[in-house]
């Protein structure tokens, strides 16, 4: 009897094997000190950290919104073939998914206000490093929260459409659950604001 570990097991095994081979090669050739996380954190430009965080903020948020719209939209269109009346009021699920992407865009605009032109000799200061890392981790937090929020709203919106097709009285009850799922993205936005609240502008 064989046990399937899923489609991602081969990718995980390949990644771990590759990292193990590279690590052993560096260890036995005397270049193990090149694997230095502290050096990476110190020598990478604060601008790079900040811009990567902003990119992750928008990218993951839009991915979550698109994924949620895909899940909800396919169920909505399938249910509307049999019960056309559900197509109008169930569009609110699509709106909830789209709001997730808007959260990411808003936070990226807020983060971009902290960017300014800094001379090269003053770029690697403690304040700029703090701001760069704060924007990176804030953007990553917002992006992951919005990604999961989009999936949550998409699955719940799909259930709302199918439940409404069977019994119209269930729509409002499932919609309440969907609203609570949508609030998760707002929590991520608040955490992203708190993360960069004390970060000064680049100077």
Automatic annotation (TrEMBL):
**How does this protein sit in the membrane?**
Multi-pass membrane protein
Pfam families tied to this protein: ATP-synt_C
Residue span, V-ATPase proteolipid subunit C-like domain = 53-110, 137-194
Listed A to Z, the keywords are:
Hydrogen ion transport, Ion transport, Membrane, Transmembrane, Transmembrane helix, Transport
Question: Which Gene Ontology terms of cellular component type are present?
Answer: proton-transporting V-type ATPase, V0 domain; vacuolar membrane
User: Where on the tree of life does the source sit, at the highest rank?
Assistant: Eukaryota
Keyword Nucleotidyltransferase included in the entry's annotation: no
Which InterPro entries does the entry link to? ATPase_proteolipid_c-like_dom (IPR002379), ATPase_proteolipid_csu (IPR000245), F/V-ATP_Csub_sf (IPR035921)
- Where do the TM regions start and end? 7-28, 48-70, 91-114, 134-158, 170-194
Q: Which GO MF term does the entry hold, naming one?
A: proton-transporting ATPase activity, rotational mechanism
Q: Where in the cell is it found?
A: Membrane
How does the annotation summarize its subunit structure? V-ATPase is a heteromultimeric enzyme composed of a peripheral catalytic V1 complex (components A to H) attached to an integral membrane V0 proton pore complex (components: a, c, c', c'', d, e, f and VOA1). The decameric c-ring forms the proton-conducting pore, and is composed of eight proteolipid subunits c, one subunit c' and one subunit c''.
Against PANTHER family, the record matches this protein to: V-TYPE PROTON ATPASE PROTEOLIPID SUBUNIT
Family per record: Belongs to the V-ATPase proteolipid subunit family.
What function is annotated for this protein? Proton-conducting pore forming subunit of the V0 complex of vacuolar(H+)-ATPase (V-ATPase), a multisubunit enzyme composed of a peripheral complex (V1) that hydrolyzes ATP and a membrane integral complex (V0) that translocates protons. V-ATPase is responsible for acidifying and maintaining the pH of intracellular compartments. Proton-conducting pore forming of the V0 complex of vacuolar(H+)-ATPase (V-ATPase), a multisubunit enzyme composed of a peripheral complex (V1) that hydrolyzes ATP and a membrane integral complex (V0) that translocates protons. V-ATPase is responsible for acidifying and maintaining the pH of intracellular compartments.
Name the record gives this protein: V-ATPase proteolipid subunit C-like domain-containing protein
């Amino acid at each position: 009897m064989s046990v399937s570990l899923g489609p991602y097991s081969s990718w995980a095994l390949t990644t771990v094997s590759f990292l193990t081979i590279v690590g052993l090669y560096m260890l036995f050739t005397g270049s193990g000190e090149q694997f230095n996380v502290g050096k990476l954190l110190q020598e990478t430009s604060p601008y790079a950290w900040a811009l990567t965080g902003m990119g992750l903020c928008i990218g993951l948020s839009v991915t979550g919104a698109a994924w949620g719209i895909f899940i909800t939209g396919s169920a909505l269109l399938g249910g509307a073939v049999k019960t056309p009346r559900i197509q109008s009021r169930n569009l609110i699920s699509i709106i909830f998914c789209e709001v997730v992407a808007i959260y990411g865009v808003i936070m990226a605009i807020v983060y971009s206000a902290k960017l300014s032109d800094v001379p090269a000799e003053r770029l690697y200061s403690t304040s700029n490093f703090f701001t760069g890392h704060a924007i990176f981790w804030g953007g990553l937090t917002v992006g992951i929260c919005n990604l999961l929020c989009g999936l949550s709203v998409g699955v719940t919106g799909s259930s709302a459409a199918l439940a409404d097709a069977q019994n119209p009285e269930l729509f409002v009850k499932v919609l309440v659950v969907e609203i609570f799922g949508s609030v998760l993205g707002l929590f991520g936005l608040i955490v992203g604001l708190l993360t960069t609240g004390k970060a000064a502008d680049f100077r």
